[in-house]
Amino acid sequence: MAAFISAVSAELGGLTGKRADSYLQEAGIEASNIVGGTFDADGRFAEAELDAYLDAIGPLLDPPLVTTAANLRETGLLVGKRATLAQPSVLFDLLVRSDAKAGTTRAHVYYERALRLAHVAAAIDLVPSLDEITAIDQFRTTMLSCLDANGVPRPGQPAGPATATPPAPPGRPSTGDGGPAGPPVAAAGAAPATVTPDAPAPEPARPIAELLAELDALTGLANVKAEVRRLTSLLQVQQLRAERGLPVIETSHHLVFTGNPGTGKTTVARLLSQIYHSIGVVTRGHLVETDRSKLVAGYVGQTALKTEQALASALGGMLLIDEAYALARGGDNDFGREAIDTLVKFMEDHRDDIAIVAAGYPTEMQSFIDTNPGLKSRFTRTIFFPDYTDDELVTIFVNLAAKNGYDLSDDGLAKVRQMIGAEPRTRGFGNARYVRNLFETAIAHQAMRIAPMSDPSNEQLATLVADDIAPVDA
Predict the structure, then answer these.
(1) Mean pLDDT of 201-205
(2) Which of 355, 385, 415 delimits the end of a domain?
(3) 394 and 334: one domain?
(4) In this structure, are 301 and 236 located in the same domain?
(5) Quick one: which of 32, 72, 86, 441 has the fewest CB in 10 Å?
(6) Which residues form the domain of 73?
(7) Looking at the structure, do residues 376 and 398 belong to the same domain, yes or no?
(8) pLDDT at position 185 over 70
(9) How confident is the model over 186-194, as a mean pLDDT?
(10) What is the pLDDT of residues 364-389, one digit of tens each?
């Protein structure tokens, strides 16, 4: 509370040239609305919430609010306060417009302190309600939409457009950082590197605002993003309670991701592992990818060893098990069951420093979870990744091309849209993986088209036309 009021007052003072303490009352009203809006989100006002409001906010109001929690509930003073979180306040809008003109980031200070204050308010309850977490997410979206509408970069977002990279050699798209990729680039985001037990020391945790900005920038996945943001808020609230020595209900950090291939599951897992690191759920924040072939051996006793090695490499971060249901497909005598038992035991023994994501098709994943009671009790949250729409897949192609220094001619763009629309959406449709393959095929065809030219222009080298857009299997 004090941190929000002090920071916002300082920004207002810096904006107007007046003393910061001239704006304590205005900042106090903002704090009152944020705290009251969070409390009102679920329509319930716990005694502890009302007491906290009276203790922290009451003295800041004009006149000061001196009453009892029971009387505050009876008067309904906080009823309807949630609406204040659904639109930018006049003060926040003022800071945003000032930033738009002066190129400053005063609104970022408000944004970060306001979200922190909302999380503190939610942390008063032992378990914050889903309505409170959803209201905080709506509040975040409201502030970001205001920034977007005024052309002010979001917190954690680069201030200017990224520098274009030159075209990569044919067949090897750039990772987007100026160098060619080893493995093909994932269309929805950079592919994470597998970390081994002798990996170097972990990198410093990235700011939550930066990670969420990267999540927001992904194409499509609206419901997935909302789920991740709500989980992030819940974990932040629990972390606040732990920091204050308050009781915390243990929440499983393990997840099930369901959906077809190429729908962004690995990209989101990479970001989520880093979010876990930033919040303090895990100590490293790296992502390790594995599947049945890397966990199950053909001899008695070897599967447990292989599985433990994979889990050990992910300790301090996240293990993503692709097509996890394959571990349970061989029947009771299959070594996959040994891998599942080892997995459950490791999750119990190292519950404080590892997260597991089991990924695969929806129906098969439910069958996988049902194979072991230990899985049921630990994988309590499922996030579904829908197939991308045609428009989203076209956007992914355009973004992938731009990231690697290519443009599309009008006829090239039309051809991409045509081919994506004609691709059958059967089970296992590759989604972004199909688009990536389509892009790689296009740059290979473009290279063959350009090769006979004695002195192609930069524009010709960087432009994909309709003739370059060919079927992936051609």
Answers:
(1) 75
(2) 385
(3) no
(4) yes
(5) 86
(6) 2-149
(7) no
(8) no
(9) 39
(10) 888 888 888 888 888 989 999 999 99
Residue 176: the pLDDT is 36
Task: Say which residue, 195 or 137, is predicted with more confidence.
Answer: 137
**Is residue 436 one of the residues assigned to a domain?**
yes
Q: Which residues lie below 8 Å from residue 281, measured CB to CB, with a gap of 6+? A: 235, 253, 355
| Residue 36 located in a structural domain | yes
Residues 216, 105 within the same domain:
no
pLDDT score at 332: 59
> Domains in the chain: how many in total?
3
Mean pLDDT taken over the chain: 86
User: Is 195 a domain residue?
Assistant: no
Q: Tell whether 242 and 362 lie within a shared domain.
A: yes
**264 shares its domain with 406:** no
Question: Does residue 323 sit in the same domain as residue 461?
Answer: no
| Residue 195 confidence (pLDDT) | 43
Residue 201 lies in a domain: no
Q: What does pTM read for this prediction? A: 0.84
> CATH no. for residue 399?
1.10.8.60
Same domain, 223 and 348: yes
Tokens of 415: 């051809």
pLDDT for 186: 37
